[in-house]
Design brief:
About 60% of the residues lie in helices and about 0% in strands. By secondary structure, it is mainly alpha-helical. Strand 1 and strand 2 form a beta hairpin. The relative contact order is 0.10. Keywords: Cell membrane, Membrane, Transferase, Transmembrane, Transmembrane helix.
Length: about 500
């Protein structure tokens, strides 16, 4: 068949029949597929051709990334350089060209070692991100005007970030082996196109996705090493160790967690150690900046500050935000240990990062990239994903229109403060909505789209199908195993425990 030996054809056929097609279980996906000819037929054999799901989704992601680059064209052609408000009215702002000169790359300064002119003193980014920025500077032609160099710097970074986007979608597509088409949620996410080249977050996002793929394949050391690298590029990936700790506690998988933790610490130290040793002041700038940074865009703290005659001090906000985050983490831990069935790793990863975003004192528009792959793995339902994405697009437009309003002087072009507060509220409500849906899936696993398809925890690696070793609350009586009995449309779960009960 199609020039393939019969043995390979049979394996491809079995593989394709085993895959879950979103158009079979998701009405929004089925309706959307009509744009390209309707749902995939059950006799179609994509595995027997070059057009495998991974390749299709990677090409779609590259196409969406390219559309995002086109969306930045008004700024590339002048708005970054010749008008403060026009880069906001066109919603095409990017940190990348501005920081080429502003952080000393145009002058050949070495990040963390050389002081900058002005008040910043040192680069305020984590070490691996700083290395990424420096490599892009090496590849940027040094001839021409500074505007030409900044354009080239943005273009070089865009090419490198496009590679990160491709890695991201490939890893997400391969994490849930029976659900490769869920990777389309990431590839087609409007947020990916709109925010991918605002900053360098895609580096950490791609490394985190690669780490989760390694954990899904029961390779805790590789997971730890990649997660350590991701944390060396951005702080948030380290948060995933928290829910993983509680999951491994419930499943009694201490050795695997210890291996992952050791790998993460080793990788982080290898990247950060030399800079800490030889340029401590430059290395610590990121952490000092994060602590000293006042309440900023996108957070509910900003709404409180701008509507208060006596706003809270930065130290007070830091303390309150930390307390709120710890309370959220405690709630996630309790949910993990008390849920009727052990939650999936992707569900808890999404919840902990979403909690950090919701409680943090700043929300830059590109932070949505942190959640996109986790959302696709945690709740692969197109309706809920698109509702959340619509809220994020509204916020994306809202922040640029607000900045246009504040920089346009007496013209007042854009969105006033009250309107911007509504945009923040839309972002917060959209994220909370998706969190509620994920928590509902945890409490009612029969409604979880991944488990309804017949899987336990495909992103869980050694946790997938593992028995519980520690459970508290109602989940402990009588359930003592990962796969508590329930019926879904395609599979019936059940297991008989040592006590002879149906679990």
């Amino acid at each position: 068949m199609c020039g393939m030996p019969s043995g390979e054809s049979t394996r491809a056929s079995v593989h394709e029949q085993d895959q879950v097609r979103p158009t079979d279980e998701d009405r929004v996906a089925a309706a959307g597929s009509e744009l390209i000819g309707g749902p995939l037929g059950r006799r179609a054999l994509l595995g027997a051709s070059w057009w495998t799901p991974v390749r299709v989704i990677a090409l779609v992601a590259i196409g969406m990334f390219a559309l995002g680059m086109v969306q930045k064209a008004p700024c590339y052609n002048g708005a970054w350089f010749f008008g403060a408000s026009s880069q906001y009215t066109h919603a095409c702002y990017s940190d990348i060209p501005h920081l080429y000169q502003g952080r000393g790359f145009a002058d050949g300064l070495v990040p963390y070692f050389d002081k900058l002119s002005g008040g910043m003193q040192y680069l305020e980014y984590p070490v691996l991100t700083g290395l990424f920025m420096e490599v892009a500077a090496w590849l940027t032609p040094g001839s021409g005007s500074i505007q030409d160099q900044e354009q080239w710097y943005w273009m070089v970074n865009a090419g490198m970030l496009m590679a990160c986007a491709a890695v991201l979608v490939v890893c997400v597509t391969r994490t849930h082996a029976r659900r490769p088409w869920d990777g389309l949620l990431v590839a087609l996410a409007p947020a990916l196109a709109l925010t991918a080249t605002i900053n360098w977050d895609l580096l950490a996002v791609a490394l985190t996705a690669a780490a989760m793929l390694m954990w899904a394949r029961s390779r805790p050391l590789a997971f730890g090493l990649l997660l350590g690298l991701a944390t060396a590029a951005k702080f948030y990936p380290g948060l995933l160790l928290g829910p993983l700790l509680v999951l491994c506690w419930r499943a009694g998988r201490w050795r695997e967690f210890g291996t992952a933790l050791g790998g993460a610490a080793a990788a982080w130290l290898v990247v950060n150690g030399p800079v800490m040793l030889f340029a401590f002041d430059g290395w610590s700038k990121f952490y000092e900046f994060s602590h000293e940074r006042p309440v900023d865009f996108g957070s509910f703290w900003l709404i409180l500050a701008q509507n208060s005659d006596n706003p809270l001090s930065t130290d007070t906000v830091n303390t309150l935000a930390a307390v709120l985050m710890l309370l959220c983490c405690a709630g996630i831990a309790a949910l993990t240990l008390m849920a009727p069935r052990r939650p999936r790793f992707a569900q808890l990863a999404f919840l902990v990062v979403a909690a950090f975003i919701l409680t943090n004192k700043v929300y830059s528009p590109q932070y949505v990239l942190w959640l996109v792959p986790l959302a696709a793995l945690a709740r692969p339902k197109w309706r809920d994903f698109l509702v959340w994405q619509a809220c994020e697009v509204a916020y994306f437009l809202g922040i640029w229109m607000y900045l246009a309003y504040t920089t346009s002087g007496d013209a007042h072009k854009g969105l006033p403060t009250d309107g911007y507060h509504w945009a923040i509220g839309v972002h917060l409500l959209g994220t909370l909505y998706l969190c509620v849906m994920v928590v509902r899936d945890v409490l009612m696993p029969e409604r979880d789209p991944v488990r309804r398809s017949g899987d336990d925890d495909p992103s869980g690696g050694v946790l997938d199908g593992a028995e519980d070793a520690f459970v508290i609350g109602p989940a402990a009586y009588p359930a003592r195993h990962a796969a508590a009995h329930f019926e879904g449309p395609q599979v019936e779960w059940g297991r008989t425990g040592a006590a002879g009960g149906s679990l």
